[in-house]
Amino acid sequence: MTLLETLPNSDTAAATPASPSGNFLQEVMDATPGDSRLAMCIQCGTCGGSCPSAADMDHTPRQLFAMIRADLREQVLRSNTPWYCVSCYYCTVRCPQEVHITDVMYTLKSMAIREKRYADATAPDLSQTFISYIEEYGRSFEFGVAARHQLRHHPFQLPSMLPFGLTMLSKGRMDLIPQHIEGIEQLQAILVRAKELEAS
Fold first, then answer.
1. Host H or E run for residue 53
2. Are 79 and 27 in the same domain?
3. pTM assigned to the model
4. In this structure, are residues 135 and 180 in contact, taking their beta carbons and an 8 Å threshold?
5. What is the rounded distance in angstroms from the CA atom of residue 145 to the CA atom of residue 130?
6. CATH number at residue 61
7. Listed residues 82, 115, 148: the one ending a domain
8. Could you tell me if 136 and 130 are in contact, meaning their C-beta atoms sit under 8 angstroms apart?
9. Domain total of the chain
10. For each of the chain's 200 residues, which pLDDT tens digit applies?
11. Helices (H), strands (E): how many in the chain?
């Protein structure tokens, strides 16, 4: 199978502008922490065959990596594939080339959020809400994440979630008020420094 056969409709692809840098593959590799080994992908399809969410993805990871090589930045960042990644790392473990597939998916999500190139804001908003609690408290706050998400995207479903939420609270499985971790100042300093390094 050739590279072109792995790509979406050629008419759509031709209309998609190339990466400003002219090398989207290198940009993704540079933005992924450590050695992503993305350039080592041999298009074997093991990742898609291993993924529990592959049926819901508009492109398999293999196709997405071919699109990255073809410099189809717009289509890659608007793909739902990274958002359906459940971070189980099964694809990464089974990859014969040891490509850090899950880490690349995180990179693509970050790029899509930064450039506002996503078709549906539901998953990016959930991701940003989760991150905001990590940055503020050092841990997730399930009650807050769920409440914000439902109010923003599914407000009419909120009453149906109430019994489940009350059960979680009564069994001590969820806190009503967020709690800071010990040493939150150190974590916040690390996060600030990480952002500075990413921006440089």
1. none
2. yes
3. 0.67
4. no
5. 6
6. 1.10.1060.10
7. 115
8. no
9. 2
10. 433 344 444 333 333 344 445 699 999 999 999 999 999 999 999 999 999 999 999 999 999 999 999 999 999 999 999 999 999 999 999 999 999 999 999 999 999 989 988 877 888 888 888 889 999 999 888 888 888 888 888 888 888 888 888 898 888 888 888 989 999 999 999 989 988 887 77
11. 12, 0
Quickly list H helices, 35-80. 46-50, 61-69, 73-78
* Residues 34 and 91 reside in one and the same domain: yes
Q: Is residue 59 within 8 Å of residue 89, measured between CB atoms?
A: no
Q: Characterize 85-122 residue by residue with b for buried, 16 or more Cβ atoms within 10 angstroms of its Cβ, and e for exposed.
A: beeeebbbeebeeebbbbbbbbbbbbbbbeeebbeeee
Question: Are 143 and 174 a contacting pair, CB within 8 Å?
Answer: yes
Out of 78, 99, 115, a domain closes at 115
Range of the domain at 25: 4-115
Of 90, 93, 88, 36, which Cα lies nearest the Cα of 65?
A: 36
Cβ 66 vs Cβ 7: under 8 Å:
yes
pLDDT reported for residue 93: 96
Q: Note whether 61 and 93 are same-domain residues.
A: yes
